Amino acid sequence: MSGWKKAKRYGENDIAFIIYTAFPFYLTRAKAVRLTWISRVTNYYFLSSVPDPSLPITVTNNTGEDYQSNTKKIFYGLELIYKAQLSIPASSRHKWYFLVGCDTYVNVPHLLKRLDAYDFQIPHFIGGSVGTQICFHRNGTTYKSLFVGGNTAHVYSAALVHAIYPHLFQYVNSIWPQPNHTSSGQSDVALSCLIFHLGFNMTIVPGFWRNTPDKTIQEFGLTEALSEKEPSSYHYVKPEQMIDLDEFYVYQYVDRLINDRNWNELKHFIRLFIGTHYKILRKNYRERLEIN
């Protein structure tokens, strides 16, 4: 309850939050994300191949809407987003790229504190879990490699995205297996293989959980699950639980600010929360008018 410390190095507007989704999830998982934690951030992108008036979709043409399409959807989306960044002044560009699925809850203030230790101008590939899978050479032969699990989020510094940007299209179309292959949908493996192939390493940090809070406790035990006081994200979160988690962490944040008598930050957050609430109400109202 006490001793809340705000992130010192970055603000939420330094991060591009990239959420990959699909048309069947627009009104469930994606909408829950949009109504909760993403409503309080500045830069966010929903990656999909189908446009929709209810979501600001970054359309990834020639991909698809099934699991096998995730890899091309993410590679094409990163390419589109970074290409647009190159047209604006360097001082205004995203410093970090945070990639998650639409069933992930993110505690943005906690995430920002995780990034305090890292310079966005240096290539960093950050995640929460490691596995082993198959990577592919250009000639189709394979090799085993570690990979950073996408179920705990992928975090890329701007310097890393700059380095992989020229290789995204060719890698996903010429080296990584196409949709009829069993490995084609493993987007986290594909990204890890490319990044490691280019000579960059990974950084694994705590607080990016690969499951929901209750299943995290079941998997690791209560003591270990609670050892991380400021978790950054949870995965496999259903829409109803997305709302529950957001409510819990909003109350926790407010309680901590009150306990520390941090009135300026409390005032800022209350105004932000009220402003985003009415912004969402207006969006929902306009969408109903369009539907009717």
Automatic annotation (TrEMBL):
Pathway: Protein modification; protein glycosylation. Keywords: Glycosyltransferase, Membrane, Nucleotide-binding, Signal-anchor, Transferase, Transmembrane, Transmembrane helix. It comes from the Eukaryota. It is found in: Membrane. InterPro entries: C1GALT1/C1GALT1_chp1 (IPR026050), Fringe-like_glycosylTrfase (IPR003378). Pfam families: Fringe (PF02434). The keyword Membrane applies. Gene3D superfamilies: 3.90.550.50. GO terms for molecular function: glycoprotein-N-acetylgalactosamine 3-beta-galactosyltransferase activity; nucleotide binding. GO terms for cellular component: membrane. It is a single-pass type II membrane protein. Its EC number is 2.4.1.122. Residues 12-246 form the Fringe-like glycosyltransferase domain. Belongs to the glycosyltransferase 31 family. Beta3-Gal-T subfamily. This is N-acetylgalactosaminide beta-1,3-galactosyltransferase. It comes from Adineta ricciae.
